[in-house]
Amino acid sequence: MTKSLLTLNAGSSSLKFALFSAETLAEHGRGEIEHLGAQARLAFRPAQGPAIAHTLSAEEGGDHHAALKTALATIAKATPHLDVAAVGHRIVHGGMQFSKPALIDETVYAALAALEPLAPLHQPHNLAGVRAARALFPGAPQIACFDTAFHRGHDFAADAYGLPRAMYDEGLRRYGFHGLSYEYVSGRLREIAPEIAGGRVVIAHLGNGASMCGLRDGRSVASTMGFSTLDGLMMGTRPGQLDPGALLYLMSAKGYDAASLTDLLYHRCGLAGLSGVSNDWREVEASASPRAVDAVAYFVRRIRVELGGLAAALGGLDALVFTAGIGEHSANLRAAVCIGMEWLGIVLDAAANRANAQRISAPTSRAPVFVIPTDEEARIAELTREVVDASRRS
Ligand code: AMP
Questions:
Q1: Is 147 a catalytic residue?
Q2: Ligand 1 in contact with 324 (CB < 6 A)?
Q3: Does residue 295 line the site of ligand 1, with CB under 6 A?
Q4: Is 2 exposed, middle or buried (0-12, 13-18, 19+ CB in 10 A)?
Q5: Domains of the chain (ranges plus CATH)?
Q6: Centre of ligand 1 from the C-alpha of residue 221, in Å
């Protein structure tokens, strides 16, 4: 019987899942169910055998529980004698309390549920995944792996806002997200370029969600994301950095309330809102519409400004890493970010960049530039195994 680790990443309308050997962490397969509801789509890529993709009925993909059952049935077909030893969950918010992954017992579950107001668009869905997995695997430990935990070692000044101090103490502070991605990518950088990984590194996670992180010796010292997943860089549908005065204006002069502001800020801004074309970078980048061109220019500008800010926070720059969908694939975006950055020690190799090579900087570049694909699922599996092993020893 193959003992396996299942990883789950439950979003608002999707469920990503992957299966790994509990012993070797070799991957058995991964997939996702998107557009949960009446017409959900399943895609599954087993490590061996043909990929699967088809539309699901409401019974198969109507909600997280149904989707998880379908995911498992799909996995089971590709993995005879499936025995799930533990389930690792991506949990977006660990608040002030969680600086490392945690075994989810009743106390931890209640603490995670209490954080729902801090991440209303993510945390409730993450916890729906936990409930679904508990119901289907009552005997398997459930492990919470946090997007915030990697940033919990920041200095006060890196996490503070200029609000009354009591608010900071209550938890109104910068948390930073995408931590599982940063942990994975900084681990890969240590393998690829061990002489650099201990230095001052900026990782740009540029996907549908986007943020940047400054790391010293593999540890996060600053992040562009703050209290929520809205801050920092512009994203697919989120605005990034914004003057809170603009929100006061929308509320007092334009009749917005919390619900309509939430909808605006999470769903109607970013590349989609600014370009009017799409939230998808490929479509915006390919569009000749002047608004799409403006949206690209703004995205690039925000990344460049944050790169300078993070380099200042780090006291210099020893390497820049691009990751996630846009960072891994868009040579144009990477070139636009790096052009004229010689003052920061960055000189791109145009041919290597076009080829999506692992190292895309010229030999003369004082700070090398890398493209390193992220793998949050692999990091969740590693952390899950660590927690399960530690709980066995104690
Ligand atoms: P992620 O959230 O990491 O899956 O990234 C999604 C983003 O990556 C979307 O905006 C996509 O348009 C973008 N993306 C994915 N593949 C490519 C590609 N081959 N070239 C440019 N952008 C891409």
A1: yes
A2: yes
A3: no
A4: middle
A5: 2-146 (3.30.420.40), 194-376 (3.30.420.40)
A6: 27
Rounded to the nearest integer, the mean pLDDT of the chain is 94
Tokens at 186, concatenated: 């900084």
Q: Cite the beta strand spans of 237-293 per DSSP E.
A: none
Which string of DSSP letters, residue by residue, matches 209-259?
SEEEEEEETTEEEEES--SSTTSSS--SS---S--HHHHHHHHHHH---HH
281 lines ligand 1 (CB under 6 A): yes
Q: What are 369's two structure tokens?
A: 């530039």
Q: Which residue in 88, 86, 76, 166 sits closest to 377, CA to CA? A: 88
Tens digits of residue pLDDT in 6-35? 999 987 788 999 999 999 999 999 999 998
Q: Is the pTM of this model over 0.70?
A: yes
Token pair in block for residue 77: 């077909």
Beta bridge partners of 6: 19, 87
Token readout for 65 is 């529980």
Q: What is the DSSP letter of 16?
A: E
The active-site residue, picked from 105, 147, 280, 318, is 147
Dist. CA 33–CA 27, nearest whole Å: 18
Contact of 200 with 391, CB cutoff 8 Å:
no
